[in-house]
């Protein structure tokens, strides 16, 4: 804990040592103070104080003077480089304008002139906190991305975070149109933000994660700030009611296209295309599918849109042509004819919602992209704030 006290060294105009007040007297008169022994009126102080240890790197450094004005303030790092700062209009306070570095010593050199015209100085140093580990974070979507109306914002940390509230307080979301949303921790390494309802089409989003200097607990600190700006595209939602063998695509709430499909086997819940609202996670022109348990490896399919980390895709399967639009015979994926798979692939954005109903099984909430599988109240309960 930083000791809240003020230490300064004052250089008197005459350069003499500070002593207890002394008096001199003349003949028949009262004793008079010696002007050289009266302390200057100006008082310099600094925050953090001289000799402070474990100083936070993002808290502004301030130097102030009472009963005077500042004439010079220099705060230097161990390399001799000056920290940027600004004086207020009255020249009574100087405040640093950039973050400090971890595990470094900084030196004060400040001067002021008091209302009595006498100079004072402040010198000394303090040391910043040295993390046990600096933790990097990443943000998704990336800058300039155009994504679907179901796209969550995801912050992933390189280490488990114990003080989630501290990390979450450093995260802000700004939108070009008002959008209700909330952060939720999906694991001790991941916090996602999603809107209560799908994003309004065309919304511009700015995310700022001011994580540098944030203490995550256990001596772990944020390594750097991260930001992203992205845009929500048109409103496109896929709906599949598995018994119908039809994949419907909606634009702005109206049916836009429909494709015959074959979904996961109805008789085996382990092979169902599970119920739930998912999103398009990746778009892969070709993908390799392996499932030794069911007797296939290195099977290549085209125009593949991953919709879960549980193994489900929307993709072409000409080998299953006889059942497409007629029967559910896949191992969980949504099978389309090649021409339809290509047509849908070309229209899809990462983050487009895919709503699946009618199956015997529900999508498990074990994926790191399970945002729309939780109702709103459950989602909000996962916030650390």
TrEMBL record:
Active-site residues from the entry: 315 (proton donor/acceptor), 333 (nucleophile)
Origin superkingdom: Bacteria
Gene Ontology terms, MF aspect: acyltransferase activity; peptidoglycan L,D-transpeptidase activity
Organism of provenance: Amycolatopsis arida
UniProt entry keywords in alphabetical sequence: Acyltransferase, Cell shape, Cell wall biogenesis/degradation, Lipoprotein, Peptidoglycan synthesis, Transferase
One cellular component term from this protein's GO annotations in UniProt: extracellular region
Domain L,D-TPase catalytic, residue spans: 236-357
Pathway recorded for this protein: Cell wall biogenesis; peptidoglycan biosynthesis
Keyword Cell wall biogenesis/degradation: yes
InterPro entries linked to this entry: Big_10 (IPR041280), LD-transpeptidase (IPR050979), LD_TPept_cat_dom (IPR005490), Transpep_catalytic_dom (IPR038063)
The keyword Transferase is assigned to this record: yes
GO BP field: cell wall organization; peptidoglycan-protein cross-linking; regulation of cell shape
Descriptive protein name: Lipoprotein-anchoring transpeptidase ErfK/SrfK
């Amino acid at each position: 804990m930083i000791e809240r006290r003020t230490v300064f060294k004052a250089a008197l105009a005459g350069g003499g040592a500070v002593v207890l007040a002394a008096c001199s007297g003349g003949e028949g008169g009262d004793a008079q103070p010696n002007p050289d022994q009266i302390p200057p009126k100006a008082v310099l102080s600094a925050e953090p104080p001289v000799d402070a240890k474990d100083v936070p790197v993002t808290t502004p450094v301030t130097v102030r003077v009472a009963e005077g004005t500042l004439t010079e303030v220099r705060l230097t790092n161990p390399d001799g480089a000056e920290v940027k700062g600004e004086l207020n209009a009255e020249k009574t306070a100087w405040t640093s304008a950039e973050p400090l570095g971890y595990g470094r010593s900084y030196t004060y050199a400040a001067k002021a002139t008091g209302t009595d015209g006498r100079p004072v100085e402040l010198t000394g140093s303090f040391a910043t906190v040295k993390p046990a580990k600096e933790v990097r974070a990443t943000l998704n979507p990336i800058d300039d991305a155009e994504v679907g109306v179901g796209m969550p914002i995801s912050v992933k940390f390189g280490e488990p975070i114990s003080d989630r509230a501290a990390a979450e307080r450093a995260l802000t979301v700004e939108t070009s149109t008002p959008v209700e949303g909330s952060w939720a921790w999906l694991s001790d390494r991941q916090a996602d933000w999603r809107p209560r309802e799908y994003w309004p089409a065309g919304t511009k989003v700015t995310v700022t994660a001011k994580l540098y200097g944030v203490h995550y607990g256990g001596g772990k600190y944020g390594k750097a700030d991260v930001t992203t700006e992205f845009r929500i595209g048109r409103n496109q939602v896929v709906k599949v009611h598995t018994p119908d063998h039809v994949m419907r695509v909606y634009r702005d709430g109206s049916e836009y296209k429909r494709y015959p499909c074959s979904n996961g086997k109805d008789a085996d819940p382990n092979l169902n295309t599970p119920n739930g609202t998912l999103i398009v996670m990746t778009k892969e022109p070709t993908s390799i599918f392996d499932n030794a348990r069911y007797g296939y490896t290195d099977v290549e399919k085209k125009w593949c849109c991953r919709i879960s980390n549980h193994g489900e895709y929307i993709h072409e399967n000409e080998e299953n042509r006889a059942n497409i639009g007629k029967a559910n015979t896949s191992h969980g994926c949504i099978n389309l004819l090649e021409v339809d798979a290509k047509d849908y692939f070309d229209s899809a954005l990462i983050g487009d919602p895919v709503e699946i109903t009618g199956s015997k099984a529900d999508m498990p909430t074990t994926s790191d992209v399970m945002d729309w599988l939780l109702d709103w109240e459950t989602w909000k309960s996962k916030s650390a704030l």
